C-alpha cells in the first residue's frame, strides 16, 4: 500500500542511520498520560496514545507535529477501522504481525531490530502496528467498495501517454526461466567467485532452453524454475535491457544475490501490444489519483457520521 510503504521508507531513514535525539516534553505525569482525550464512537484516544503517535511521527519527519494534527490522525484511524469492520474487513493480530515483518524486511532489518529501534525512541511497537492496521483495512475497503469507479480505461491511458509514445513504442513478451547456482550464506568470496565463473562457463555452453533444463535440473546445488511469461511493463528497466541483449535460448549475465549466482534463460521474446512501461506508469498514476480522491471523500463522509467527543 502506498501510504504504508512511504511511511516505512521514511522510518527506515531514521533506523538505518543514527537515531535522532528526541526532545518532546509537556505531557505531564503517567496518570495524566492515561486520561481520555477524545472518544470516537465510544472508543477512547488517551493522552498516552497521542504522546506515542507524536513520537512516531517525529521519528519519520524529525519535526514535532501539532497536537491537533496527531489527534486528527488518530481519529481518522478509529473511523477507518470501524467502517472497515462494518464490511467484514478485520485483519487478525497475525495478519498485522506479518505486515509489520514485511515492513521491517523492506527496511532490510528484522522485526526484532525494528521493535528495538522503536523502543529506543520510547515508541511501543503496537503504536506502529495500529497505524499499519488502519492503512491495511482502509486500502482494502476503498479498493473493494469502489472497484468499478477506480478502474482506468485503456482510452484514458493511451491519450495520457500519447506525448511520450515515441520514446516507448515497443513492448515485448518474454518467456524465461530463472536459474540459481546456490551458494551458502556466509561463504568465502573465493567460493562465490568460483560459482560465478562456473555460471559464465555454462552460459557459453547453453544454446537453448532445453539444454538449460538438461544442465540445471541434474546439477548439484542448482535449480531452474518453471517458465514464466512477463511483458516489458512487468519488468524493471535493467532486466528489460539485459533480456533485449540476450539471444533467444541463451542465459543472461550472472548476478550474485543472497541465494547465490542467478541467471535467466530467455526462451522466447515477441512483440506485444498488451502494454508498455510508459502506459503502465501512466495507468498506475491515474489509478493512484482516483484512489486518493475517493479515499479522501469517503473518509470525510464516515468522519462526519462518527460520534466524536473531546474531553
Describe the structure.
With 311 residues, the chain is of the alpha+beta class. The chain folds into two domains: 2-149, Orthogonal Bundle (Triger factor/SurA peptide-binding fold); 170-271, Chitinase A, domain 3, CATH 3.10.50. Helix content is 56%, strand content 14%. The chain contains 13 helices and eight strands. The strands form two sheets. Strands 3, 4, 5, 6 and 7 form a five-stranded antiparallel β-sheet that branches. A three-stranded antiparallel β-sheet has the order 2-1-8. The longest helix has 29 residues, at 277-305. Mean pLDDT is 86; it is low at 16-32.
The computed structural class is alpha+beta
Q: Give the rounded overall mean pLDDT.
A: 86
Order of helices and strands: HHEEHHHHHHHEHHEEHEEHE
Outline the low-pLDDT stretches. 16-32
Shape: extended
> Superfamily at the CATH H level of the largest domain?
Porin chaperone SurA, peptide-binding domain
* Total number of beta strands: 8
Distance between the termini: 34 Å
Note the total helix count.
13
CATH topology of the largest domain: Triger factor/SurA peptide-binding fold
Under the CATH scheme, which architecture of the largest domain would be assigned? Orthogonal Bundle
Oligomer: single chain
Radius of gyration: 25 Å
Major pleated sheet = 5 strands, antiparallel
Beta-strand level of the residues, as a percent range? Answer: 5-15%
Secondary structure layout:
Elements: H1 2-15, H2 30-33, E1 36-40, E2 43-46, H3 47-61, H4 67-86, H5 93-106, H6 111-120, H7 125-145, H8 147-150, H9 154-161, E3 172-182, H10 189-205, H11 209-216, E4 222-224, E5 228-231, H12 237-245, E6 255-256, E7 260-271, H13 277-305, E8 308-310
Antiparallel strand pairs: 1-2, 1-8, 3-4, 3-5, 3-7, 6-7
Helix pairs in contact: 3-4, 4-7, 5-7, 7-13, 9-13
Amino acid at each position: 500500500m502506498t501510504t504504508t510503504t512511504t511511511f516505512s521508507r521514511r522510518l527506515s531513514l531514521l533506523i538505518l542511520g543514527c537515531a535522532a535525539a528526541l526532545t518532546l516534553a509537556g505531557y505531564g505525569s503517567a496518570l495524566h498520560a492515561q486520561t481520555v482525550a477524545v472518544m470516537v464512537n465510544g472508543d477512547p484516544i488517551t493522552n498516552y496514545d497521542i504522546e506515542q503517535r507524536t513520537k512516531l511521527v517525529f521519528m519519520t519527519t524529525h519535526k514535532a507535529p501539532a497536537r491537533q494534527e496527531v489527534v486528527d490522525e488518530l481519529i481518522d484511524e478509529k473511523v477507518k477501522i470501524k467502517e472497515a469492520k462494518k464490511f467484514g474487513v478485520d485483519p487478525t493480530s497475525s495478519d498485522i504481525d506479518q505486515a509489520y515483518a514485511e515492513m521491517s524486511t523492506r527496511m532490510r532489518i528484522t522485526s526484532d531490530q525494528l521493535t528495538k529501534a522503536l523502543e529506543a525512541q520510547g515508541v511501543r511497537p503496537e503504536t506502529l502496528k495500529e497505524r499499519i492496521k488502519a492503512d491495511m483495512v482502509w486500502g482494502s475497503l476503498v479498493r473493494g467498495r469502489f472497484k468499478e469507479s477506480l478502474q482506468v480505461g485503456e482510452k484514458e491511458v493511451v491519450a495520457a501517454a500519447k506525448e511520450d509514445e515515441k520514446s516507448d513504442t515497443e513492448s515485448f513478451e518474454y518467456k524465461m526461466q530463472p536459474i540459481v547456482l546456490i551458494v551458502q550464506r556466509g561463504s568465502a568470496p573465493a567460493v562465490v567467485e568460483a560459482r560465478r565463473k562456473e555460471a559464465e562457463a555454462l552460459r557459453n555452453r547453453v544454446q537453448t532452453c532445453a539444454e538449460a533444463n538438461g544442465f540445471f535440473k541434474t546439477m548439484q546445488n542448482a535449480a531452474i524454475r518453471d517458465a514464466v511469461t512477463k511483458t516489458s511493463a512487468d519488468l524493471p528497466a535493467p532486466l528489460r535491457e539485459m533480456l533485449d541483449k540476450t539471444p533467444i535460448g541463451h542465459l543472461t549475465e550472472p548476478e550474485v544475490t543472497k541465494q547465490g549466482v542467478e541467471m535467466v534463460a530467455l526462451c522466447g521474446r515477441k512483440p506485444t501490444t498488451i502494454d508498455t512501461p510508459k502506459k503502465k506508469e501512466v495507468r498506475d498514476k491515474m489509478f493512484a489519483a482516483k484512489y486518493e480522491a475517493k479515499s479522501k471523500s469517503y473518509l470525510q463522509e464516515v468522519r462526519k457520521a462518527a460520534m466524536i467527543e473531546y474531553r
